[in-house]
Design goal:
With 281 residues, this protein is α/β, with parallel strands linked by helices. The chain has helices spanning 7-19, 35-47, 75-84, 95-98, 117-120, 124-139, 151-163, 193-198, 201-214, 220-231, and strands spanning 2-4, 24-29, 50-55, 89-91, 143-147, 169-173, 237-246, 260-268, 271-279. It is built from ten helices and nine strands. It has a six-stranded parallel β-sheet, with helices on both faces. A three-stranded antiparallel β-sheet has the order 7-8-9. The protein is globular, with a radius of gyration of 19 Å. Helix content is 37%, strand content 20%. The protein has two domains: 2-173, Rossmann fold (3-Layer(aba) Sandwich); 186-276, Pantoate--beta-alanine Ligase, Chain: A,domain 2, CATH 3.30.1300.10. The structure holds adenosine monophosphate (AMP).
Length: 281
Amino acid sequence: MKIIHKPRIMSGLSCKIKMQHKTIGLVPTMGALHEGHLSLIRRARKDNDYVVVSIFVNPTQFSPKEDLKKYPRPLKQDMRLCKKEGVDIIFYPSVEMMYPKDYKTYIKVSKLDEVLCGKFRPGHFQGVTTVVAKLFNIVSADNAYFGQKDAQQAIIIQKMVIDLNIPVRIKITPTVREKDGLAMSSRNAYLNQKERKEAVVLYQALKLAGRLIKQGNKNSADIIKRMQYLILTKKSAKIQYLAIVDTQDLRLVSRIKEKILIALAVSIGKTRLIDNITVVP
Ligand code: AMP
């Protein structure tokens, strides 16, 4: 397994691989790898000749108030996990390599970045699309893997790839959960014992909504109210948003007729967590 720091070296190696008509699968991550990331890596390993995992805690997707500094960076452990999963290359650039002093270019996918998480994290998705587009250009991947856990991110990246004619196939893989249903996330490490127990309410609320829809309830406002009641039984929980939206354009759905995305962001203590499910009525 190679560790590459410089974009120029990464591009050169990708070029050599492509000349041999081999395929490259890219798994973009911010590190602190867990089973959710590993599921993407395993899928990439199955589909491609070469697997590149990028590890980059991207500063442009954090607002000044967010946890950029304290975001976990257990590089040695990440390297060990990647090696075990048969990753060929870890691309681990520095901030200066990705954003040199005179950096000026940003990519914005309009509208889709203004709802759900975008409403509460202005500039976040612009940071994500910019870094992901850079990674696509540096790595020249045939396939790139993203988790359903970050549904809005996946939808926005898919749209960017279509709109900008970027020659990469986007593959979305299911959310990996802890035994009790909590979606795996590097940020779960911030939760104390009590918060960790209460955090399961996010998934419980999504499951409740799913059950109600399957039982024939089509009224989003009513479903959201019931989710709210359930979540607020937990002392440490503070709701940022609960929404039932279209799976393509993320527009709010008030009467549920076809497949929808139920998405939420809830702070448990000081830790902001997100989760989602899709439901077909
Ligand atoms: P991150 O390191 O948090 O930026 O995540 C890197 C990739 O892993 C993104 O595509 C995420 O959607 C995906 N991911 C994170 N957590 C999970 C999870 N629990 N299940 C599946 N994919 C995940």
